[in-house]
């Protein structure tokens, strides 16, 4: 596929990563219920796979966050949040499920919004992490895999809203940048 320069995480490796995260989270939350907050749209596949690996009771809700306005370029106007939560998070053990953590601006916004609503606990699980691009003090409690700075797509991650359906994660061919 021309858009993909190189596959960096295969379908099989994604499944292993998600299984490991599911085990870790289930152990840490033993005896509790989790309220999973899926950050749309990139986290859809990750959420649905991760929740099937959880052995503790969980509820699911959704928020939409976007910082890339088409292509791979940041908008520069900040992060757009659409708060579609239907569940009251007060006194809940909240776990935010994110596809990829880069600067941390997106999650900083989300954490600011959610922490004002008095959750019992608030943690972050990200499938991918590009720690070298961090520009905030945000860190995830659960990280699937640390990756280099390249723009990646597939398994929920998009380029101009396409390619979320690829079952693997690949680096974009630089000619599209
Ligand atoms: P941050 O706010 O800089 O941490 O960026 C996080 C958001 O940018 C993620 O939720 C993604 O939606 C998007 N993003 C960051 N890196 C990539 C990438 O390599 N591919 C696709 N989307 C990305
Ligand atoms: Mg995202």
- Provide mean pLDDT, rounded: 94
Cα(first) to Cα(last) distance is 16 Å
Number of helices: 3
Class of secondary structure makeup: alpha/beta
- Percentage of β-strand residues: 25-35%
In this entry the ligands are: inosinic acid, magnesium ion
- Segments where pLDDT lies below 50 for 5+ residues? none
- What is the general shape? globular
Can you offer a commentary on this structure?
This protein is α/β, with parallel strands linked by helices. 21% of the residues lie in helices and 31% in strands. It is built from three helices and nine strands. It has helices at residues 11-28, 44-51, 105-115; strands spanning 4-9, 34-40, 58-66, 80-82, 93-101, 121-129, 142-146, 152-153, 169-172. A six-stranded mixed β-sheet has the order 4-3-2-5-6-7, with helices on both faces. A three-stranded antiparallel β-sheet has the order 1-9-8. Strand 5, helix 3 (105-115) and strand 6 form a beta-alpha-beta unit. Helix 1 crosses helix 2. The longest helix has 18 residues, at 11-28. It is globular. It binds inosinic acid and magnesium ion. Residues 42, 67-68, 98-106, 151-153, 157 line the site of inosinic acid.
Provide tags for this entry.
21% helix; alpha/beta; 177 residues; six-stranded mixed beta sheet; single chain; binds magnesium ion; 3 helices; binds inosinic acid; three-stranded antiparallel beta sheet; 9 strands
